[in-house]
Amino acid sequence: MSRYDSRSGDPASYRDRRSDSGFGGASAYGGSGRSLSSRKDYDAGEPPRKLDLDGLTPFEKNFYVESPSVAAMSEMEVEEYRQKREITVEGRDVPKPVKSFADVGFPDYVLQEVMKAGFVEPTAIQAQGWPMALKGRDLIGIAETGSGKTLAYLLPAIVHVNAQPILAPGDGPIVLVLAPTRELAVQIQQEAAKFGASSRIKNTCIYGGVPKGPQVRDLQKGVEIVIATPGRLIDMLDSHHTNLRRVTYLVLDEADRMLDMGFEPQIRKIVSQIRPDRQTLYWSATWPKEVEQLARQFLYNPYKVIIGSADLKANHAIRQHVDIVSESQKYNKLVKLLEDIMDGSRILIFMDTKKGCDQITRQLRMDGWPALSIHGDKSQAERDWVLSEFKAGKSPIMTATDVAARGLDVKDVKYVINYDFPGSLEDYVHRIGRTGRAGAKGTAYTFFTAANARFAKELIAILKEAGQKVSPELAAMGRGAPPPPSGHGGFRDRDRDRGKGYGGSRPWN
Ligand SMILES: Nc1ncnc2c1ncn2[C@@H]1O[C@H](COP(=O)(O)OP(=O)(O)OP(=O)(O)O)[C@@H](O)[C@H]1O
Ligand SMILES: [Mg+2]
């Protein structure tokens, strides 16, 4: 029988019941410092090898009970549903997708929160990802920006926590979510707080740039869920403010970013402190082939679910426009564009460098545009303030480096502008994905210069896959032709919902 009673509706009493189940506290787990080499990739035909779990207390991670309506789905219905929602699955014993929230078997206290949020049905990644995650298996989940991946891992995390013995003094978290930026970590925490509130799960966010004191106090009090950026978490581990001996549910959000060269050593260090039979879940909108092999080193017998094409792709709800420009034309083009589109809705503008961000923002402000900037050289207090002004719509234009490219979910960002082309096509997909979220439509404008020519071919593929127009100039660049002389191109076919200019009078008006 499953220990996870979806209809109990009372998580606290459920956890109390479990607390005398003979599971020890932290001391029972001897798992610290275990080598990763015990987790490996397996071919489909090869049975999973046994993990070395010497001295580790067993724990529950399979909570999934198929609802009668899901069980009644024939293989053909499953196939049809997956096709309709563009769900591709890999792995052995893949569970059927769920069509409705009620079918997942989430406890009432979780379902109530979902209803309160006003959601109508699971997104595709949730429909297939929830049963997979609830089965306790490792998982790679790839789905477009703004498609609800956060709840795809947070709701099963809540179920997971509520089925574990309560924390003993000195215990570290049960769920660890790693994210690449502070703002994203904080956003995930807010979501965890919202959906975990009714089950009295405590959480904290461990990230740099702010005083350690309050974070240390949270850790010492005991929290079931920790959301962290790697650097500060390692600080906390090195100074013994927490430990990962009780982590049994590990999430890498923006997993391809977390496994790239910048973060990989830190991830390795963190993961080496977590027991090998943990459940590990990776999520992203992009999944370059190069990370797959590295990623699988940390997984055991994983499922993989991909929504839409397995190739790099952008969210189809976003209209994409690309304008071939020269570097010197960019600012004037930007202002023209802003005059066209500015109607008080939020506009996010990406730049390459912090310096560029500052320069353009200063210029925009001098010219009367309500712009603020967020990047890594700003104090965390300023970053927080800028983001909150942007979210509140008080400062509808935000300029940013890639620090804002991934994961951030700001309501009603209508336009994303790539003032500078990003350093990779993956970043392009994440950046423009700040608009067109959760069923909304969005528009992205991208300035593309001769210096970006090497990205032309892949960019064209992304545009085509999403059914977007490719200008003859860009197509020529994709074929290796030199870019046209400056002044060509332009956002000819952009939507013409011209807004009023914003701010005071400008010299070129
Ligand atoms: N089932 C649902 N129905 C409608 N909206 C949902 C559903 N699940 C989540 N959302 C909302 O969709 C928005 C985007 O979700 P989320 O931030 O998790 O996207 P994501 O897939 O993680 O995107 P990214 O790749 O950019 O990180 C959020 O505002 C979230 O509340
Ligand atoms: Mg996300």
Task: Explain what the structure shows.
The protein is α/β, with parallel strands linked by helices and 509 residues long. It has 2 domains: 68-307, P-loop containing nucleotide triphosphate hydrolases (Rossmann fold, 3-Layer(aba) Sandwich), CATH 3.40.50.300; 318-479, 3-Layer(aba) Sandwich (Rossmann fold). The chain has 19 helices and 14 strands. The chain has helices spanning 11-19, 68-71, 75-84, 101-104, 108-116, 124-134, 149-162, 182-196, 213-221, 230-238, 255-258, 264-271, 289-296, 330-341, 354-366, 380-391, 425-432, 456-465, 472-478; strands at 87-90, 139-142, 175-178, 203-206, 225-228, 249-253, 279-284, 303-307, 318-324, 346-350, 371-374, 397-400, 413-418, 442-448. The strands form 2 sheets. An 8-stranded mixed beta sheet has the order 1-8-2-7-6-3-5-4, with helices on both faces. α9 links the parallel β4 and β5. α6 (124-134) runs parallel beside α7, α7 (149-162) crosses α8 and α18 packs across α19 (472-478). The longest helix is centred in the middle third of the chain and has 15 residues, at 182-196. The radius of gyration is 24 Å and the shape is globular. The N and C termini lie far apart (72 Å). The relative contact order is 0.12. The model is unreliable at 1-38, 40-45 and 492-509 (pLDDT under 50). The structure holds adenosine-5'-triphosphate and magnesium ion. Magnesium ion binds at residues 149-150, 253, 407. One of its GO terms (molecular function) is hydrolase activity. It comes from Gossypium hirsutum. Pfam families: DEAD (PF00270), Helicase_C (PF00271).
